[in-house]
């Protein structure tokens, strides 16, 4: 079941820079970001959004060992998921991260 099928409004951006340039990004209930992007990391994107006043949950997607990254990113991200990502696992993480939003 996809996020849209669960009732979430999904917006995709070509890059972290595009997300930061789009005012609607600050309206998001949850951020799902890749760890490695062309201009910045997922951590860089989240920190820039935090600096702009966005304080909602974020989920980091990575090809690296998720358990290692989760220890490093625990204070920033609600969850860290290792690729390949099972669709139901992503949906469960978003449900959990947004339940208090």
From TrEMBL:
Tell me where in this chain the Response regulatory domain is found: 1-98
Domain of life of the organism in this record? Answer: Bacteria
Record keywords, A-Z: Phosphoprotein
Q: Which residues carry this modification: 4-aspartylphosphate?
A: 34
GO annotations under biological process?
phosphorelay signal transduction system
By its UniProt entry, which InterPro entries does this protein fall under?
A: Bact_response_regulator (IPR050595), CheY-like_superfamily (IPR011006), Sig_transdc_resp-reg_receiver (IPR001789)
Signal peptide (residue range):
none
The answer to whether keyword Phosphoprotein applies is yes
* Protein known as: Response regulator
Native organism? Sphingobium yanoikuyae
């Amino acid at each position: 079941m996809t996020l849209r099928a669960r009732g979430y409004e999904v917006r995709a951006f070509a890059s972290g820079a595009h997300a930061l340039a789009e005012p609607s990004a600050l309206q998001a209930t949850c951020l799902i970001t890749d760890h490695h992007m062309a201009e910045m990391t997922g951590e860089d994107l989240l920190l820039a959004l935090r600096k702009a006043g966005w304080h909602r949950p974020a989920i980091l997607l990575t090809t690296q060992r998720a358990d290692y990254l989760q220890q490093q990113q625990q204070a920033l991200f609600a969850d860290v998921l290792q690729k390949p990502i099972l669709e139901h696992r992503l949906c469960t993480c978003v449900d959990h991260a947004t339940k208090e939003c």
